[in-house]
Design a protein that fits this description.
Number of domains: 1
Distance between the termini: 10 Å
Largest sheet: 8 strands, mixed
Number of strands: 8
CATH class: Alpha Beta
Number of helices: 3
Oligomer: single chain
Shape: globular
Structural class: alpha/beta
CATH superfamily: Cytidine Deaminase, domain 2
CATH architecture: 3-Layer(aba) Sandwich
Strand order of the largest sheet: 7-6-5-4-2-3-1-8
């Protein structure tokens, strides 16, 4: 389960909206204990692709975020990105690029009036929805 406090969800949604019409992206950090991951930090990064259909994070931004995460004694828990006009589910590209089955892959869809935020675990080409708690 991914524990994603409302403040973190709000930060992700604000970043997703600010990125429109393109996808927005970032990293999630915090503490993991067993199957429960608690997000304590949201790192909003720049989408280098500037595309409504895919994203890539700037390596220097990722490096800076990872340095801060380590200084705080946290772990990288996952990443997030938005889908401006498609549902909150991993695309074929999202699944292909998922590099670590222990990470949470959060997708927020802005395709409808009310945003839809979901988390997924992706392993061996398969995506399974992960429960989100607050």
């Amino acid at each position: 389960m991914l524990i994603l406090p409302k403040a973190a969800q709000d930060q992700i949604l604000a970043h997703a909206r600010s990125g429109l019409p393109n996808e927005a992206c970032g990293l999630l950090a915090g503490l993991a204990q067993g199957d429960e991951k608690t997000v304590l930090g949201v790192y909003c990064l720049k989408n280098l692709d500037q595309s409504p259909e895919h994203f890539s994070m700037a390596p220097e931004d990722q490096f800076k975020a990872i340095q801060e995460i380590r200084k705080k004694g946290w772990a990288l828990l996952g990443n997030f990105h938005s889908h401006p006009s498609t549902p909150s589910r991993p695309s074929n590209e999202d699944i292909r690029l998922a590099f670590d089955p222990s990470l949470s892959y959060v997708i927020v869809s802005l395709a409808t009036a009310e945003p839809v935020l979901k988390s997924f675990l992706i392993s061996k080409g398969l995506a399974a929805e992960e429960a989100i708690g607050q």
